[in-house]
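thread: overnight batch results

M.L. [08:02]
morning all. the overnight job finished for the chain we discussed friday. pasting input first so we're all looking at the same thing
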Amino acid sequence: MDEKNILEHAWTAVAALVEATLREDEPAAAEQLLPGSPAAQLLALFGLEVFDILLKTVLGQDQLELVQVVEVPEGLFIEFAWIMPGPAEAGRPVDGKVSVLLQLRHGRFLISDVNPAGLDLLLTEARARAILATSKILSRRDELPSEPWILPLALFAGFLPLPLRPEALADAVETRFFAGLQQREYGVMLLLRARRLWHDFKQANPLPTGSPALWAAAVEWVMGEQNSRPMPATAVAAAYDVSPAKLRKRAEVIQETLHITALDDRYTDPQIIDVLYQDEEG
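M.L. [08:03]
and the structure it wrote out:
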């Protein structure tokens, strides 16, 4: 497939996802997503509401433009932007840029991830919190959902807990730690990383025995360690109504099984992601 065809086919997938989101056509949106990818997981967990935020259709604009296309080891990034009329509103630290990661599968581009920011600095939980803090928005947290431009930041920062679909949760452990992490304001991408940790553990240890609440507490405690959100084991245990000593033992089992000895990229949200810089360095 030559460069022109690559762009045409990849952009077609992105445009189809945007159109499906605007039409509120979830089956059509799902057809554009790579099965098992972060994007597919988000759709299953939260429905199209999450893509209304990630794709920034929530901004209510009707024109978009292609900004750039960048090949990376993981696939192909397409950055597009909603055309925002007039000068930026005072105090609005966000633009219309969105970055979409696609992967080629069986001759077709499928979307694996969507980030509501430009490729020069993709949005992470840390960056979302920093933007909200410098914008002096955190003191008005209860009002965040009323301003559409804040929604992508609030979602990543952990201040916008979208309703979960119970049928999308794999087991009682997931049900518990998703609720706990949302209550303690973990961002949406860290929810997926916690889910990966639990799935990786179950793959290595298919039949973990014991209380689901205890395993859920252990997952949260490990995620807190991995993401510089230290919370005493006693506090985590109290949140799940389990024994701190048993929590520590379960956490050690998870860490030993997954060979976690320090910060692990599989379960840690990056502080900063600059795709363009990484591409130049590569």
